Amino acid sequence: MLAFDSIPLRWANGFFREFKMCGIVGLFLKDKSLEPKLGDMLTDMLITMTDRGPDSAGIAIYSEETKGKTKLTLQSDTPETSFDGLQTRLATALGGPVTVAIESTHAVLEIPAGTTAKCRATLSETSPEIRVMSRGDSLEIYKEVGLPKDVAERFKIASMSGSHGIGHTRMATESAVTTMGAHPFNTGDDQCLVHNGSLSNHNSLRRKLRREGIHIETENDTEVGAAYLTWQMQMGATLGEALQSSLDDLDGFFTFVVGTKDGFGVVRDPIACKPAVMAETDQYVAFGSEYRALVNLPGIENARVWEPEPATVYFWNHTSDDATSEKAA
Fold first, then answer.
1. Percent helix, percent strand, percent coil in the chain, to nearest 5
2. Taking CA atoms, which of 120, 175, 203, 302 is between 20 and 30 Å from 225?
3. Which of 116, 219, 139 is nearest to 186 (CA)?
4. Region 4-59+163-327: CATH code
C-alpha cells in the first residue's frame, strides 16, 4: 500500500479533494444560424450536470453588442427596491441614456461606452447592496444559489441567443454557498472563467494581483484564477498566451473554461485529475465535464470527440477560421 507521506502534497491534496466535483459546460458556435439556440443548448447541458453541483449555478452568454454602449449585469437580493428608480439615477450621474432590463434578481444595464468606472462608483455610493456580476460589450452573467434547472428558468436562459457561452454547477466544499461564490467569475471586460478544482496559492496571488490594481471581490480561489488571466491580458497577452502562463504560475488542480469577447479557451493542469471532454463539428466546439452533457447537441454523433490533454491550451476565436491548440513545453 502506498503511504500517504510518500505522495507529493500537491497530488495528495487534489486526490482527496476530488469529491469537490462541480460541473462545467461551454459552447462556442461557428455556425451563426445556431445563435438563436445558444441559450437552449447551454441550458440542457447545464441541467445535465446537476448532480455534479446542486448548490448554485451560473451561465455567461456572449450576445449581440450595441454600438456605443457597454453592458453591466447587476444582482440584488432585494430587486424590488434596489432596481426601483435605478435607470433615472444612473442616467443623471452618467450624463447619458441608460436602459435597464430586469429579470428576477438580475438587471442588465446598457450605459454609454466609457462610463463603466463612473457607473460602478455611483452604484457603490448610492446602492451598496447591488453587486456587479459582469461588465463588457457583449457579456451577460446570470448566477444564483439553487438547482441549475431553477436558476436557468428564473432567468429564462433557454430563450437567449448569442455566439458563445459557458456555464457552471457548483458543489461547494471550501466556502459558503452564496451568489458571489457561484461561477462564472468576471474580472475584466468581456472576460469570464469557470473552474473545477482548487488553487493552493490563491491567497498569495490575490495579494499580488490587488497590488497590481486588479479588482477582486471575494475570497474564492476561482476568482483569483480569472483575475490572473485578466492581468495577463491587460499586459498584452492573448487568451492562449495567458492560459499558457497559468500552467506555470497557478498551483493546484484545475480545469478552466474561459470566455472572452471573441474567444473560448480550455486548459487543464499537468496532472489533469478533473474530468473533461470536448467535441467539435463544423457548427460548434463544445465542452463538458462529462460526455453526457454533450449528447443532445446537433450532429454530436458525427463530432470529433476527445479528452483535452494535460498542460495543453486549446482556444478558438471568431476572428480566425481555424481552432488552435498549443502544448506546453
1. 30, 30, 35
2. 120
3. 139
4. 3.60.20.10
**Grid cell for residue 17:** 479533494
Of 22, 119, 192, 273, catalytic: 22
C-alpha cell at 301: 454523433
Residues 78, 64: Cα–Cα separation, whole Å: 28
Q: What is the DSSP string of 124-184?
A: HHH-TT-EEEEEESSEEEEEEES-HHHHHHHTTGGG---SEEEEEEE--SSS---TTTSSP
What is the pTM assigned to this prediction?
Answer: 0.90
Q: β-strand 277-280 against 284-288: which pairing, if any?
A: antiparallel
What confidence tier does 174 reach under pLDDT thresholds 50, 70, 90?
low
Q: In the chain, which segments carry CATH 3.30.70.2540?
A: 65-137
* CATH for the stretch 65-137: 3.30.70.2540
Residue 22 is among the residues annotated as catalytic for this protein = yes
